[in-house]
Structure formats: structure tokens, C-alpha cells
């Protein structure tokens, strides 16, 4: 217990003395418990001063977790000479019932299905030299009430569409995409994550899984000044840049051969 208390002294500036004492009891109970992790189970393994009511009060307290995780990382884990990249991913925990805040139907990558669960989005820093990931920000994702409903299908217009480009239409290459409710939630989390890194740690890459391998997600990341690393769909059409010689007539080509991603 004394080692835990010593490690927590680095966050004394953002957590009260009572909160630190309660947190040390919770951490101690989490480390030695061998059963299902509930507040009652944790209280059974704590030392004197870690009653069930104490554990309950701590879980109901409001803490600045982003600042806490960042201080613990910089004081205990950060190595100035190492290179870091950022990574973001969704974590889904199965949860039955209807009373838990934020419970809904989310897709679980491990179960490969949509299930009643809680969703959390995590941004981490990855030490390239040591190949270690350190979570910095964990935020619960709560769907809005009307988000579950499917969009109304657009009925096709009667008759055939005229051949060629519609008169008055413009290129959409530089048009700002419409972010989905999911991306809007992640965007605010990403901005807060990068704000805490500013002036201390410089990162250049953000890695996310294939679910975010699309233009709106890439646009959201590029606006922050980061390079985006993800996986495109297997049937995504890719065009190489044209490097040939202009023949002197017709429009200047911008793209060369078309290729598709491997499965």
C-alpha cells in the first residue's frame, strides 16, 4: 500500500487528499482481487479505511482523468529520447440491463456482432522503441436518442437520368464532408487529447482501424495537422498520380492507372 501512495503523490495537485486515499484503496483492491470486479468485491480486499461506502463515494466523485493520466505518464513512463505516435480505438464491454448510463447496442470486434454494451473511445500514446501503448484519454461514447434509427431511403426518381454531368454541378473534391454523430463525438475527444500534449510532446501520426478508413475520418484527422494511418476497404479504388508527359491536346491528366486494395 505504501508504494501505491508514493506513486500517487505526483497527482496530488489535481486530486484532493481524501480522493488520493480512496484511490489507493481502490487500486489495492483491484490488484489483489481474484473475483468479479465490483465495488463490493473491491471493498472486501481493501485494508482499514476501505469500506464499501468509501469505495462508493470515490466512484461517485468527479475527477479530471485526462490530466491525471497525463501527469502519471509524464512523471512515470515518458522517455524524452523516444518517438511516440498516437492511436485511437473503440473498446466495447458487454452490459445487460437498462439502468446503466450510456448502455446501448454497439458493435464488438471480438464478438463480431452488435450487442448490448458500453462503448468507450480511447486515445493512447505508443512508444515506438519499446512497442508499448499508454492510454491517456478514455471517454464513454453515448448515442443520441435518434441515432439508432435508420435513415429514410431515398426513392428513385421516375424515368431514366439523362446521360452526362448535370448542368450547373461543381467538383466536390475540396468540399467539407458531413461528419457523422460518431465522428463528431470523437472529434471533440481528439481535440482535448491533442490540447494536453501541446508544448510537451510532439506527435505526427494518428493510427486508427479500418472502420475509420474513409474520407470523413481522414479529413477530421488532417484538420488537426496529423498524418492519418488506417486501412481502406478491400474494394476501395485507388488511383496513382499521373507522371507521364502531356501530349499537347485535351485536359491535363491528374490520375494514372486504377488499382484496388488486396483482401
Number of strands: 8
Computed Rg: 25 Å
Structural class: alpha/beta
What does the overall shape look like?
Answer: elongated
Number of helices: 7
What's the end-to-end separation, in Å? Answer: 51 Å
- Beta-strand percentage? 15-25%
Question: What is the domain tally?
Answer: 2
Mean pLDDT: 85
Largest sheet: 6 strands, mixed
Order of helices and strands: HHHHHEEEEHEHEEE
Low-confidence parts: 149-153
Helix content: 25-40%
Secondary structure topology:
Blueprint: H1 2-7, H2 17-32, H3 39-45, H4 52-60, H5 65-77, E1 84-94, E2 104-108, E3 113-127, E4 132-141, H6 181-197, E5 205-207, H7 215-222, E6 227-229, E7 237-241, E8 255-260
Parallel strand pairs: 1-5, 5-6
Antiparallel strand pairs: 1-3, 2-3, 3-4, 7-8
Structure description:
The chain has 263 residues and is α/β, with parallel strands linked by helices. The chain folds into 2 domains: 1-63, no CATH class; 65-145 and 178-230, no CATH class. Helices cover 29% and strands 22% of the residues. Strands 1, 2, 3, 4, 5 and 6 form a 6-stranded mixed β-sheet that branches. The protein has a two-stranded antiparallel ribbon with strand order 7-8. The termini are far apart. Residues 149-153 have low confidence and may be disordered.
Features of this protein?
29% helix; 2 domains; 263 residues; 7 helices; single chain; two-stranded antiparallel ribbon; six-stranded mixed beta sheet; alpha/beta
Amino acid at each position: 500500500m505504501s508504494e501505491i501512495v508514493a506513486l500517487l503523490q505526483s497527482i496530488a495537485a489535481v486530486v484532493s487528499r481524501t480522493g488520493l486515499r480512496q484511490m489507493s484503496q481502490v487500486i489495492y483492491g483491484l490488484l489483489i482481487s481474484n473475483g468479479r470486479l465490483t465495488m463490493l468485491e473491491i471493498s472486501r480486499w481493501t485494508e482499514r479505511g476501505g469500506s464499501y461506502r468509501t469505495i462508493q463515494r470515490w466512484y461517485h466523485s468527479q475527477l479530471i482523468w485526462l490530466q491525471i493520466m497525463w501527469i502519471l505518464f509524464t512523471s512515470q513512463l515518458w522517455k524524452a529520447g523516444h518517438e511516440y505516435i498516437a492511436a485511437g480505438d473503440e473498446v466495447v464491454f458487454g452490459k445487460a440491463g437498462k439502468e446503466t448510463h450510456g448502455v446501448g447496442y454497439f458493435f464488438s470486434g471480438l464478438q463480431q456482432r452488435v450487442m448490448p454494451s458500453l462503448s468507450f473511445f480511447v486515445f493512447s500514446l505508443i512508444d515506438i522503441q519499446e512497442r508499448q501503448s499508454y492510454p491517456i484519454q478514455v471517454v464513454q461514447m453515448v448515442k443520441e436518442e435518434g441515432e439508432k434509427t435508420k435513415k429514410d431511403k431515398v426513392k428513385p426518381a421516375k424515368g431514366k437520368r439523362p446521360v452526362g454531368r448535370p448542368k450547373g454541378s461543381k467538383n466536390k473534391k475540396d468540399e467539407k464532408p458531413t461528419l457523422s454523430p460518431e465522428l463528431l463525438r470523437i472529434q471533440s475527444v481528439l481535440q482535448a487529447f491533442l490540447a494536453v500534449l501541446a508544448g510537451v510532446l510532439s506527435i505526427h501520426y494518428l493510427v486508427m482501424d479500418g472502420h475509420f478508413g474513409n474520407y470523413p475520418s481522414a479529413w477530421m484527422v488532417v484538420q488537426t495537422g496529423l498524418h492519418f494511418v488506417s486501412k481502406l476497404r478491400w474494394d476501395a479504388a485507388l488511383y496513382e498520380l499521373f507522371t507521364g508527359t502531356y501530349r499537347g491536346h485535351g485536359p491535363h491528366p491528374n490520375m494514372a492507372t486504377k488499382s484496388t486494395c488486396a483482401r
